[in-house]
Amino acid sequence: MSPNNIKAAMLRGETVVAMWSSTGSADLAEAAVHRGWPTILIDNEHGVGNLDTAVAIHRAVLAAGGDCIIRVPSSDPTHLKLVADRGFRSIMVPMINNAADAKMIADATRYPPRGMRGYAAPVVRGSYFGADGAYMRTAHKDFLLIAQIEHKDAVDNIAEIAAVDGIDCLFLGPNDMAGSIGKLEELDHPDVLALCERVEKETLAAGKLFGSICRPTRSGTELKEVGCTLIAGPSDLSIFLKGAVDARADFPFIANPAG
């Protein structure tokens, strides 16, 4: 197998910035790669589409010279097995709150004796449908497993989560973190900022890769400067909406046929 270039870049200390694919459009993801976004973060938690949609996006992105991270809808081990079998090697899992959660997702993506991933190696896309005969023995080396830290209950457990073998990166989700203390959409609230900064500092102190999105006290540049190696940037939908608003301004006289 080719190496996981996203993981390799992060381990070199480079900052990977990904565009969210939230519309389920393989065409938009492919076009984004050609326009300077080599990493696409497929959102199967809140975005449009299912695992088959994600595979179509993945194929288009790989063909264009990029690669994908997929955010799955939950930590369900059965679904994680399918995601790994379908060829995804960079996987983000939401709402990991403790070491037991972290171990469950690590085990689900690694074959025995390292984990409990179900065996079908010779017939899955992950092994190029059996063309990679070493897949079962080597797949774990190229997995990038990202645990989302997005609830107040996780904050006291950062060191324990980071210590779980197979967890490569902790990704701070500040919006849900704020919601977990009753401050949804108040990202500049002192209590929210304190929790976010604690996650950031403790993750880096534990020697784990750190990822996040921008927030009031952390621009992309500031995240990079503090050691963040994965930034989830804009989504395809948000870019379209901004473009739609900008384009609409050129035509102030547009009629609405619907009345």
- Termini distance? 57 Å
Low-confidence stretches: none
Outline type:
globular
Radius of gyration: 19 Å
The number of helical segments is 12
Helix content estimate? 25-40%
Neighbour order of strands in the largest sheet: 1-2-3-4-5-6-7-8
Features:
259 residues, 8 strands
Summarize this entry quickly:
With 259 residues, this protein is of the alpha/beta class.
Structural overview:
- It is a single chain.
- By secondary structure, this protein is an alpha/beta fold.
- It is 39% helix and 15% strand.
- It contains twelve helices and eight strands.
- The protein has helices at residues 5-11, 26-34, 51-63, 77-85, 99-108, 135-138, 152-155, 158-162, 174-179, 190-205, 220-225, 236-248, and strands at 16-21, 39-43, 67-71, 90-93, 144-149, 169-172, 209-212, 230-235.
- Strands 1-2-3-4-5-6-7-8 form an eight-stranded parallel β-barrel, surrounded by six helices.
- Helix 4 (77-85) links the parallel strand 3 and strand 4 (90-93).
- The longest helix has 16 residues, at 190-205.
- The N and C termini lie far apart (57 Å).
- 39% of the residues are buried.
- The mean pLDDT is 97.
Provide the fold topology.
Blueprint: H1 5-11, E1 16-21, H2 26-34, E2 39-43, H3 51-63, E3 67-71, H4 77-85, E4 90-93, H5 99-108, H6 135-138, E5 144-149, H7 152-155, H8 158-162, E6 169-172, H9 174-179, H10 190-205, E7 209-212, H11 220-225, E8 230-235, H12 236-248
